[in-house]
Amino acid sequence: FTERRVMRQELLAKLNEISLTPAQWKDHGVLLSGDGVRRSAAHVLANPKIGMHDLKELLGNLLDKLPREVIDSVEIYCKYRVYEERHEREMRAALSVQNLPIPKGVKWSEVGFL
Q: How far apart are CA 93 and CA 87, in angstroms?
């Protein structure tokens, strides 16, 4: 278990280390918006149309050395991390207003979403 966790961490570190512009990604067969913003391979994997197989050239023989389970778990993590981060931001925002007092005189019948 620990060995696979280390493998996942190493693969994720490598994916975060690789950072290219859209033009450079295109040179490797990965099409992104042409905004000029550098993106890590981990960030690129969040795109549902891009899989780990699209990054094989950049990762060299690293993928050949890893069990499929490790590769799949890192790809899934990269794909869903954006949703987890968004959820965390939403939760922090909700918690930050949770204890705000409700002003007196609120006309609850006029609050449309209740």
A: 10
